[in-house]
Amino acid sequence: MAAIPALPAISAERLPGLLRRMPKAELHIHIEGSLEPELIFAMAQRNGVAIPYASVEQLRRAYAFSNLQSFLDIYYAGASVLITEQDFFDMAWAYLERAKADHVVHAEIFFDPQTHTARGVAMETVINGLHRACEQARTQLGVSASLILCFLRHLSEDEAFQTLEQALPLRDKFIGVGLDSSEVGHPPEKFARVFARCGELGLHRVAHAGEEGPPEYIWSALDVLKVERIDHGVQSAKDPQLMRRLAQERVPLTVCPLSNLKLCVFPRLADHNIRQLLDAGLAVTVNSDDPAYFGGYLNDNFLQTFEATGLTAQHAWQLANNSFEASFVGAERKRRWRDQLDEVFAG
Ligand code: ADE
Ligand code: ZN
Fold first, then answer.
1. Of 22, 84, 235, 298, which is least packed with CB atoms within 10 Å of its CB?
2. 310: domain range?
């Protein structure tokens, strides 16, 4: 673990400003989950797609979820307005501008191609639109961004293989693969062969595990899928042996506090186990998951979680540095971001 520098005394009043201004990486953001209701309506209109809501306000009122599946049903319906390459660009660009405002210096962005190819949208349309936004963010915003292709775990492994085949001609436009959608009943083992193939192809591997599902899914994501990070992973607290392993191996967890609150994983933000995970030495990061649906982008996640759980400036530094350490970039860029982080804390 990176040694935490001796931080100057930081008063409680200064902490929110630091949380906002500190450089940070976002490693768990579904780009389709950044599609704001206003953009859904604009795209529905320009593409002639019918949506079963009369207004932006009515759609927003439907964002009251009881669990992961109740959210996914609305999330996939929202994504149905995305048709053209420009739509995918516009969605990603809106997120990247918002990320820049939150002092995000780097984002590793999930996308769900099967949600779109199943509706007849070509794989190139999806990837080229998203990739163009990532390139423009680098040159115009100074934010680096890369793409991670997620397989939908409620579909079959054969369908995941077909999706991989369709994406391989665009291999230079994404850095890795992930696993998302309905977790319980769809254990990581279901995707053992396709993840093995992705490993042979040199793709990074991550998977959602232990969001609602049991600690066993985290064990098998690590041992069967050979993932480098666990997305969510908050259920690991139920398994002391797993906690010890995650701490020892510094396996990053991309935790999403407002998502966990809105999907009723924890009854209140004050009940979130992020402090327990951090204090046990796990490589926790903070992320927004689906910010348009869960009421907050990355800084909202930091600010509300610190307010509710009493995390300290030491935790803030650790969380930001963990986000750099857990990212899929080289050591030199990680070192530069860490220097920038130290400057903000020293200032
Ligand atoms: N797809 C988008 N958000 C998700 C989440 N929180 N869990 C699983 N799949 C998702
Ligand atoms: Zn997620």
1. 84
2. 26-346
pLDDT in tens, 31-89: 999 999 999 999 999 999 999 999 999 999 999 999 999 999 999 999 999 999 999 99
The CB-side HSE value for 316 (13 A sphere, CA atoms) comes to 30
In this structure, the number of other CB atoms found within 10 A of the CB of residue 55 comes to 10
CA of 228 to the centre of ligand 2 (A): 15
Distance CA 145, CA 296 (A): 20
- Which residue, by CA, sits nearest to atom 1 of ligand 1? 181
Q: Is 208 a pocket residue for ligand 1 (Cβ < 6 Å)?
A: yes
How many domains are there within the chain? Answer: 1
CATH of the domain at 138: 3.20.20.140
For ligand 1, say whether the CB of 318 is within 6 Å of any of its atoms.
Answer: no
* Beta carbons of 103 and 297 less than 8 angstroms apart: no
Instruction: Please tell me the distance from the alpha carbon of residue 249 to that of residue 165, in angstroms, as a whole number.
Output: 32
Residue 14 domain flag: no
Domain for residue 4, yes or no?
A: no
Domain membership flag for residue 15: no
Q: Is 181 in the pocket of ligand 1 (CB under 6 A)?
A: yes
Question: 288 alpha carbon to ligand 2 midpoint, in Å?
Answer: 8
Cα-to-centroid distance, 336 and ligand 1 (Å):
31
Q: Is there a domain that residue 6 lies in?
A: no
Confidence of residue 7 (pLDDT cuts 50, 70, 90): confident
Is the shortest distance between the CB of 114 and ligand 1 below 6 Å? Answer: no
Q: Comparing C-alpha atoms, which of 174, 154, 84 is closest to residue 164? A: 174
Which residues are marked as active site?
211
